[in-house]
Each structure stands twice: as structure tokens, then as C-alpha cells.
């Protein structure tokens, strides 16, 4: 099994606050793993360290065996890490295709012009948005903005896709569409780490979950088992429910 990502003893301190505390886990190629935990447990900080927005205070983050901790985002992205954000970061005055083309221009292959237009269309097809390619990004519905953001991430042809609450804010129908879309990426063998609060989505998508509480890992295993784990139940719901 090829290991795509390995975190070893990762710690992140913000002044006196230890947001992530000696966290270790790894992802094999093709795994879709949920990173769970109550609010403030350190999940987004982990995503920020993997993608280079924060340097860990200590520990090693290896991508395909190569240490990447502390590198800037623009150095990590071309090595094969793409991410989406809690809030969609589109360029609203550009077309949908142009939004994806900007990701291609600054991505691993630095594609421009006709080649970039064709490749953008390919990635928009992957997320079911090809027929909107010429529309302004600001005219898209929320789920379509999410699709576009995913197409921008896929444009980087990542080895590892980080989805940070990508399904948040969708209505039940959109949520089904969003889950199907992530499942289609899973079927194509994409390795995905996702932070998500929607339990139905976690159960549908993640074979395995890592659970954090107050910066520490409290569980790591098959999703059903982890969600039944009394320590996980206690972390989410308090002592009365465990
Ligand atoms: N840039 C920062 N400076 C200082 N403290 C921070 C910073 N980013 C996060 N923190 C703190 O680190 C802790 C972990 O935050 P983080 O956002 O990683 O948690 P989370 O599990 O993603 O929470 P949520 O589910 O609410 O998004 C929190 O106490 C938060 O206030």
C-alpha cells in the first residue's frame, strides 16, 4: 500500500494555546478519511499545516515520503496537495471556466490559452458543471460554486485532496449531490482527507475516521467503530451520553 500522507508527532502552539498536540496518523493511496472532532479541537489547524498555511511547532508531515512541514502553500501545492475552504474562494467577476483556468495557470503544469480552456472544461465535466462554463461565477447557485471550487482543486491534479467542510450549508438535495460527487472521486482512486460535521456524509464517504479532542487524537479506525467509541461520544455530547 502506498502511503500518501504521514503526520508524525505534529504539534501547533499559538502562544500559550496548544491547538494540535502530538498528532500522528497516515493515509494510504485511495483512502477517504474523515477528520472529526468538536468545535475548536484542531481540525482546521491540521488542514492548514498540511497545506502550508501554518508551520507546525514540531513534528514531521511527509507527502509520499518527502517532508513538507513548514513549506509555503505555493511550494506544497505543486507537490500534489489541493484543498477547498470552509468559505468558497471564487473570483466572482470571472467566468466559471476562467476560474478553473486561473488554477491551471498557477498549478503544477502552468497551462495557458487553448490548452487551459480545454483542460478547464474537462475538470468542469468531472464535477457536472460543464454547461455553465461560460457563466459568471457570481451567477452560480451555492452548490454550483462548490462544484467550481472542487474543479479548481482537481485542476491541480492532486495526489491528496483536502476538503474542509465542503458539504457545509447544502440543503438535503444538494447534500446528496455533493456526497455522490465525492464518491465519484473516491471511485477514481483519489486520496481524500475531509473535515466534516455532517454525520450522514461521514458515514457514506469515510471508511475510516480520525477523531480529535482538544488537539489530541482520541480515536482512529473504521467509521462505525469510531462513532460508537465512548470517548468519542463523550467528546461530542458530554459525559451523560457516554
Ligand atoms: N491563527 C490562530 N491564532 C490563534 N489561535 C488559533 C488560530 N487558529 C486556530 N486557533 C485556535 O486553535 C484551536 C483549534 O482551532 P481549529 O480552528 O483548528 O479547530 P476546529 O476543530 O477546526 O474547529 P471548528 O470545527 O469550529 O472549525 C482553537 O482554540 C482556535 O481558537
TrEMBL record:
Pfam families: ABC_tran, BCA_ABC_TP_C. One of its GO terms (cellular component) is plasma membrane. Residues 5-239 form the ABC transporter domain. SUPFAM superfamilies: P-loop containing nucleoside triphosphate hydrolases (SSF52540). The keyword Transport applies. InterPro entries: AAA+_ATPase, ABC_AA/LPS_Transport, ABC_transporter-like_ATP-bd, BCA_ABC_TP_C, P-loop_NTPase. CDD domains: ABC_Mj1267_LivG_branched (cd03219). GO terms for molecular function: ATP binding; ATP hydrolysis activity. Keywords: ATP-binding, Nucleotide-binding, Transport. Gene3D superfamilies: P-loop containing nucleotide triphosphate hydrolases. This is Branched-chain amino acid transport system ATP-binding protein. It comes from Pseudorhizobium flavum.
Amino acid at each position: 500500500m502506498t502511503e500518501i500522507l504521514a503526520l508524525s508527532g505534529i504539534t501547533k502552539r499559538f502562544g500559550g494555546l496548544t491547538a494540535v498536540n502530538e498528532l500522528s496518523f497516515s493515509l494510504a493511496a485511495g483512502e477517504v478519511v474523515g477528520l472529526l472532532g468538536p468545535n475548536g479541537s484542531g481540525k482546521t489547524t491540521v488542514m492548514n499545516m498540511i497545506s502550508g498555511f501554518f508551520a507546525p511547532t514540531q513534528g514531521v508531515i511527509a507527502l509520499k515520503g518527502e517532508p513538507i512541514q513548514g513549506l509555503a502553500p505555493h511550494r506544497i501545492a505543486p507537490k500534489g496537495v489541493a484543498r477547498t475552504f470552509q468559505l468558497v474562494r471564487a473570483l466572482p467577476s470571472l467566468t466559471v471556466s476562467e476560474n478553473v483556468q486561473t488554477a491551471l495557470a498557477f498549478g503544477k503544469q502552468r497551462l495557458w490559452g487553448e490548452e487551459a480552456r480545454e483542460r478547464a472544461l474537462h475538470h468542469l465535466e468531472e464535477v457536472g458543471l460543464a454547461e455553465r462554463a461560460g457563466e459568471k461565477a457570481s451567477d452560480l447557485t451555492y452548490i454550483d460554486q462548490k462544484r467550481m471550487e472542487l474543479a479548481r482543486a482537481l485542476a491541480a491534479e492532486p495526489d491528496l485532496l483536502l476538503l474542509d467542510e465542503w458539504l457545509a450549508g447544502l440543503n438535503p438535495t444538494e447534500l446528496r449531490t455533493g456526497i455522490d460527487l465525492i464518491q465519484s472521486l473516491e471511485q477514481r482512486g483519489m486520496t481524500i482527507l475531509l473535515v466534516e460535521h455532517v454525520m450522514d456524509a461521514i458515514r457514506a464517504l469515510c471508511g475510516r475516521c480520525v477523531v480529535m479532542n482538544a488537539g489530541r487524537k482520541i480515536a482512529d479506525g473504521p467509521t462505525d467503530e469510531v462513532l460508537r467509541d465512548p470517548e468519542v461520544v463523550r467528546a461530542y455530547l458530554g459525559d451523560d451520553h457516554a
